Amino acid sequence: MSDHPHGGHADFQPVSGFVLPRFAGIPTFMRLPHIPLDDPRLAQVQVGLIGAPWDGGTTNRPGPRHGPRQLRDASTMIRAQHGITGLRPFEALNCADLGDVAPNPADVQDSLRRMTEFYAQVKAAGIIPLTAGGDHLCTLPILRALAEGRSAENRLGMIHFDSHTDLYHSYFGGQMYTHGTPFRRAVEEELLDPKRVCMIGIRGTAYDNEDRDFAKSVGIRVIPIEEFHARGVADVMEEARAIAGQGDTYVSYDIDFVDPAYAPGTGTPEVGGPTSWQALECARGLAGVKIVGADLVEVSPPFDPSGATAYLGVSLMFEMLCAIVTAQI
Question: Which of 1, 68, 225, 243 is 20–30 Å from 305 (CA)?
Answer without folding.
Answer: 225
